[in-house]
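Lay summary

Proteins are chains of building blocks that fold into shapes. Our project writes down both the chain and a compact code for its shape. Here are two examples, one after the other.
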Amino acid sequence: MSQSITRRHFFGASATVTAGVYAATHASYPTASAQTAGNEAFKTKIFKAAICGDPTADLFEKLAAAGFNGVETTLWDTTPEKAAAARVIAEKFGMRIHSVMRGWAEFNNTDADARQKTIDATATSLRAAAAYGADTILLVPCRIGGMAMPDPWDFEMDFDPETLMVNKVVTGDNAPYKDYIEAQNRSTTMSIEAINGLIPLAAELGVVIAVENVWNNLWVKPEFLAAFVNSFDNIWVRTYFDIGNHTRYCKAEDWIMACGKTLIKLHCKDFKNDRSLRDGGTWKHLHEGSINWPAVRKCLEAVNYNGWMTDETGAPADAELARRMDAIIAGKQLTIE
């Protein structure tokens, strides 16, 4: 039986998670003294990170001086030996390499050899993450495009809660979106198969597969992404949520509340909504877009999110960026002149 998505339906399911995943993935955070001063209003702890390529001593020295707690590295295709050496360097500066950005995979590739190659690459990233001391890899399972799709704000997803197969994507006539619906369903099935195959390795290494849907035209509504992640029913598959990526679909608060306790990591950037533009808006520096940061922080508290928030604005990882992130962690909205 198909079911139209309602936020209420998934709040309960996505708000539950075993104590095991918390213990397995949150055991090595910095001390609470690293938190923003004046953040007593929140019980949850959030730590600041920046994205980097090669994690070097010079980088860690600079970030530590600016008030960051760690990094997420894009250097996933490396040997465990090199990753372990980087971990030692990070720890000398009291820093942590908390995640590895595996990024875009091709789990929906219809060529079996190409699909296996991208699965093998993801396994490489899991091994690297374990050696870095990271507890997650960021994984975008696949992407689709090149066919007619609704505007982001017009999506009204209707799917089978058991199979996750989509029946409709808009209210009314869905004939124009037949190819999109078929591509969505095929990608969901193939992604589930690939991720299930990687779970044993993730469990062995103690590294969570953190799924992100970053403008890949898949799982584009909060309850659908939550249903996809929850379908694995496994502590080694969680949600990596980018606070700025999805405001063109709906508010960041809706995503946080729907995904709930499946949230394992956060990216932060800002987005100025403008439906007159092709992409529905433009990227902005933190506190200069449409994100309601105090509301976001309250939602993170409501779902008991304790963990990392990594900047992805591309801004210099300096004291100014740290100040803007600290304001988010403290539940404040800055007015930027």
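And here is the second example, written the same way.
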Amino acid sequence: MEDYCVIDLEMTGLNAKYHKILEVAGMRVRSKKIVGTFSELIYQELPLDEEIIKLTGITDEMVKSADSEQKVLDAFFTFLGEDILVGQNVIFDYGFLKQAAVNRKIPFERQAVDTLKIARRCLLDLEKRDLESLCAYYQISMGQHHRAMDDVQATQILYEKMEAEFLEKQPDIFRPRPLIYRAKRQTPATQRQKKHLKELAEYHKIELDLAWDTLTRNEASRQANKIISKYGKMSKN
């Protein structure tokens, strides 16, 4: 494949319905030459979990001056254009982008080639096929793993190496295929939901660390259910 765009995202968690995109990166390739890159952190309203800081090396201080999700993703969608995507377990990243696109009421349908699927088909003797293991196998320098642009650069080299080795033997696995991820538009939490959450927290004497301005209905319901499951309902008396 001559023309494509490699992508990688870092997130605040694993679920596109509840977690946020923390960092995005892309690399545009034309005729197998890198012709453009995109890399941006995204401002976060809430402090990052310690696990995310440890995993990515991204700190609250680093995202404090970053642009908003709206601004960064609008620019990132423009950068991607209509390109075929390449990524390691690309459906995971696509799910977050798709959710963001649905929330904005914009179309985002893409075809992609997944380096993880190629590895699973072609490198049967490997015990692990995560990006770090694949880069170790091909002796690809990774830079700082779990930073989006470093992972993009590693994935691009990985893709080219696997294509050179396996394309003639298994051409079907290198054909771009449509990415399918079903997402429902997330709507803002109602004032009634916010009031109920605050009353629950006050009743059980707990503090809620929530981004109230951007709280969605799904997240409000999830938070309320978590409180009730752990502490119980409010007494009617």
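What can we say about the second shape? The mean pLDDT is 95.
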